[in-house]
Amino acid sequence: CNCLLIEDEIRAVIDTGLEMEVIEECQPERVDLVINSHGHGDHIHGNRAFTRAKVAIHRLEVDTIISKEAFADGLVGSWADLMSVPLNFNVDFDYPETGLTFKDTQIIRFPKSRVDFTFDEGDIIDLGEVKLTVIHTPGHTAGHSCFYWEREGILFSTDIDLTRSGPWYGDKMSNLDQLIASVYRIRDLKPRILIPGHGRVITDNLEQRVEVYLSHVFQREEKLLLILKQPQTLDALADQHLIYQDHGNPLFRYWEKVMLLKHLERLERRGLIKQSDDQYFI
């Protein structure tokens, strides 16, 4: 996760990532405010380093960072319904030494954080010279937010990151329609500079990047509509690997199923498919 340090009258960090050695470069003892875009572990894990800073997050994300039960529910809350194997593995793939470990549906280690105040759509976070407008962009999670320094046209877009792999919507609280609307909202802001939560700073071709980003969503739905000319169960659809090529770690198969369900719910709302018992079809 990219962490954004803002040197101003109020010294602030947006998202705190996983790598403690990088966080140390921010001189956490001098930071006044931590702003979390949402409650996923790769964005809040470093909160614990900022011992004197106040912590702020969208009101809909509070439980996620103060409660291990709410944190787990978002990431793996439907496991018992969707998976036949027990939940017992390390879920951090990049930094195992800081990983979050789930065992028998209990989180052994959880990046718990306090919350000092919350924000909502349209609130202004005044740091001095920099004044950030909160842009509530739900879909990735319920309270996912971006932060816009409108005067300079600089947007921190967090997990609307416009990466080539497309958006991620495997959280239990993800909403695909909301996510699509949030991505288009970011496009329509036309920021001069977009700083994503993952990947490199974007300064040009914003509309093209948005189209490529969302093409993953729309292409998956086109493939689903072709496959569903014959009735299919969710397990059979997961076997098609429309999202993840490798299900070696059961977490990928789980997230494949969660994201497929988001598509199926969206297609059913639009009247394009039907469901009967455990099968989906056109």
Q: Evaluate the radius of gyration.
A: 19 Å
Give the DSSP E fraction (strand runs of 2 or more residues).
15-25%
Globally, the shape reads globular
Poorly predicted ranges (pLDDT <50, ≥5 residues)?
none
Q: Structural class, from secondary structure content?
A: alpha/beta
pLDDT averaged over residues: 93
Instruction: Note the main sheet.
Output: 5 strands, mixed
Order of helices and strands: EEHEHEHHHEEEEEEEEHEHEHHEE
Compute the number of strand runs.
16
- Binned, the helix content reads 25-40%
Count of separate DSSP helical elements: 9
Strand order of the largest sheet: 1-2-3-4-8
Measured between the Cα atoms of the first and last residue, the distance is: 39 Å
Short description:
Helices cover 31% and strands 20% of the residues. It has 282 residues and is an alpha/beta fold. The longest helix is centred in the last third of the chain and has 22 residues, at 206-227.
Question: What does this protein structure show overall?
Answer:
With 282 residues, the protein is of the alpha/beta class. The protein has nine helices and 16 strands. It has helices at 20-23, 41-44, 62-66, 68-76, 79-82, 176-189, 206-227, 234-238, 250-269; strands at 4-6, 12-14, 33-35, 54-58, 88-90, 101-103, 106-107, 117-119, 124-126, 131-136, 145-149, 154-158, 193-196, 232-233, 274-276, 279-281. A five-stranded mixed β-sheet has the order 1-2-3-4-8, with no helix packed on it. A five-stranded mixed β-sheet has the order 9-10-11-12-13, with no helix packed on it. Helix 6 (176-189) packs antiparallel against helix 7. It starts with a strand and ends with a strand. The mean pLDDT is 93.
